[in-house]
Amino acid sequence: MLFDAIFVTLFVTGWAFCGLVPWLALSVWTRGAAGLPNLPLAMFAGVVGGLAVPILGRDDATGIWLSFGVAVVAPSLLLAARRFSLRAMHHPPVEGNTAK
Q1: What angle do CA 84, 28, 15 make, to 5 degrees?
Q2: What are the backbone dihedrals phi and psi of residue 84, each rounded to the nearest 5 degrees, phi first?
Q3: Of 73, 11, 66, residue with least CA distance to 42
Q4: If DSSP codes are grouped into helix, strand and coil, which group holds residue 7?
Q5: Which residues, 6+ apart, have CB-to-CB distance to 44 below 8 Å?
Q6: Percentage helix, strand, coil for the chain under 3-state DSSP, each rounded to 5
Q7: Percent of the chain beyond pLDDT 70?
Q8: What is the pLDDT of residue 33?
Q9: How far is 3 from 20, CA to CA, in rounded Å?
Q10: pLDDT (tens digit, 9 = 90+) per residue, 79-96?
């Protein structure tokens, strides 16, 4: 029982750290404009993405490595979607030429 709790804690911590990596990379790339409120969101997405792999049935050694890969990819996609949606909201497309 105690060993199960230790391993679950290590996996959740590892997935959360994998969720931190894309946020940290985006923060360095944009010189701090990744947004501090996005950090818990990215870490949560990493845990959810990593946990989805064993729940969906891949619970062998390959599934462990795959879960850590998904724990990096899921927050990356989430941060990209948030970044592009905020950019589209602040810079709407210009329709046609308005000069007369």
Answers
A1: 80
A2: -70, -35
A3: 73
A4: helix
A5: 19
A6: 75, 0, 25
A7: 86
A8: 81
A9: 26
A10: 999 888 877 666 666 666
The pLDDT tens digits for 64-76 are 999 999 999 999 9
- Give the C-alpha separation, 91 to 55, whole Å: 40
pLDDT band (50, 70, 90) for residue 63: very high
Q: How many CB atoms lie within 10 A of CB 74?
A: 23
**Structural Rg of the chain based on CA atoms:** 18
Q: Which amino acid is at 49?
A: G
Which whole-number Å values give the CA distances from 1 to 5, 10, 53, 83, in the listed order? 6, 14, 22, 42
Whole-prediction pTM: 0.81
Please name which of 55, 45, 89, 50 lies closest in space to residue 67, comparing C-alpha atoms.
50
The encoded tokens of residue 25 equal 């990379």
CA distances from 37 to 33, 43, 57, 96 (A): 11, 11, 32, 36
